[in-house]
Design a protein that fits this description.
Layout (H helix, E strand, L loop, with lengths): L15 H31 L4 H8 L2 E2 L13 E2 L5 E3 L5 E3 L3 E7 L2 E6 L2 E4 L5 E5 L9 E2 L1 E4 H4 L4 H31 L1
Antiparallel strand pairs: 1-2, 3-10, 4-5, 5-6, 7-8, 8-9
Helix pairs in contact: 1-4
Amino acid sequence: MLEFTFNSGGLDGDGVERALFQALKKAGGDAILAVRAEAKRGTRERVRIRAGYLANSALPLRYPRVRSSLSGLIWVMDVSGQEVPLGEYPARQTRVGVSVEVQRGKRMVIKSAFMAKSRRARKSVFLRPTKARYPMGHKLGMSVADSMSDGKVPAAALDRGATVMGSAFMRLLPLELAKLKGG
């Protein structure tokens, strides 16, 4: 959790709170993007998952409402606890089955598995649970939350977010205050 405290230092007048709101809102947007980028980087150091899957499905962002107050500015990055399909990792078909690398440097072979396009036209890994043609079982790997369970990745991501938010706010606040004087 990031907490932001600001000393107004004699900034009084019409529109100052609006300038603070705008600067903080823009800085928070930069900070949450930096948090997700750092979380993606830290996760991908350990797990060979596609970056696009992390950004789009596993680490979605929620921004504050448009008409929120200064105290209501909350940015959230959810971390998915769902298991990731093995098609999102580097996989290749072999004669024996499918060779997939989930953790960096640890390639494993899933015997009798095969690769095919799923309903959403994505490369996926399947394994039939019985000798029958159907049903096909979709193979799943570890969840993104499990790959971040050591605590280092979330701590590094929050540190990066706090740094970006502070520097962005200090850069944006004079620009927002200048709009008051000019307008």
